[in-house]
DNA sequence: TTAGCGCTCATACTAAAGTACCAAAACCCA
DNA sequence: TGGGTTTTGGTACTTTAGTATGAGCGCTAA
């Protein structure tokens, strides 16, 4: 954001000085003022496009924000969600248990509840649905 | 693209007519020509940003292209890849078999080979790796 | 024409995954 | 402090997933 403001300011200054330079031409009647305006407008347009692109690539637009609202809507608890994330990492129930410091039984319980809440038959299907819901 | 050209043309026309309107003010000496230019520049800048954003959201920049090169590198066959895509859809081996018109045994064979080639222990892990490799 | 590869399928396992049901701590909140 | 929810864990069982191995068929390049 700071960057944008800076570039924006520089842009205006550049334009005003550009105008000062072209003023001589305007006075002499060779260069029409419309052209000067159109030129500056075109330049600014492309600068706008450029800046927007820059910002877009810097912070990937499709950094899918996690839809916390949907998590509550589906009544997915904290622990269940933690398990879901580990599933998306390709871990087995046992591995998830080790990572979250609980038994495999507990993980199975969470997974089972998760599948019911996501209306999935398998963990792979749960992953697909979760992605569609922007949950992961 | 056509849209962009259209908007761009409309923009220039609008600016020129804007200038025509403001010309009276310029002649009367109340409104300085610098302000007119700066104003048009600012408008064009934001229009550029807006259009760029529109384009970005319309056709997602991060439409991950499938890395066919990597598929060959990993020696993943046509059929195996078809199975992989079905796995990402959350289907079971049996369901995949029905969809591809082969037996569950065949699907199992493909999955097994797939896991070996992707160096995964489970299908969920295979999904994760495949995504990292931009294969799906 | 034969060796190699891809695709198919089967059997027989072992290993995970998932279900159902129960139950006891732990936690939060009114 | 009682009550609902979450988290945890267990047993017992069914269903998928995954491995290993072998084998037949069709295509293709040497």
Give a verbal description of the structure.
The structure is a homodimer of 136-residue chains. Chain A has 136 residues and is mostly helical. The first copy, chain A, has 2 domains: 57 residues; 65 residues, Winged helix-like DNA-binding domain superfamily/Winged helix DNA-binding domain (Arc Repressor Mutant, subunit A, Orthogonal Bundle), CATH 1.10.10. The first copy, chain A, is 76% helix and 0% strand. The radius of gyration of chain A is 28 Å and the shape is rod-shaped. Chains A and B meet through α1, α2 and α7 of A and α1, α2 and α7 of B. The structure holds a DNA duplex (30 and 30 nucleotides).
- The number of E-state strands of chain A comes to 0
CATH homologous superfamily placement of the largest domain in chain A: Winged helix-like DNA-binding domain superfamily/Winged helix DNA-binding domain
Poorly predicted residue ranges of chain A: none
Distance between the termini of chain A: 28 Å
Q: What is the total domain count of chain A?
A: 2
Q: Helices and strands of chain A: which structural class?
A: mainly alpha
In the CATH classification, which architecture of the largest domain in chain A applies?
A: Orthogonal Bundle
CATH topology value of the largest domain in chain A: Arc Repressor Mutant, subunit A
What is the helix tally of chain A? 7
Query: Tell me, what's the shape of chain A?
Result: rod-shaped
Mean pLDDT of chain A: 79
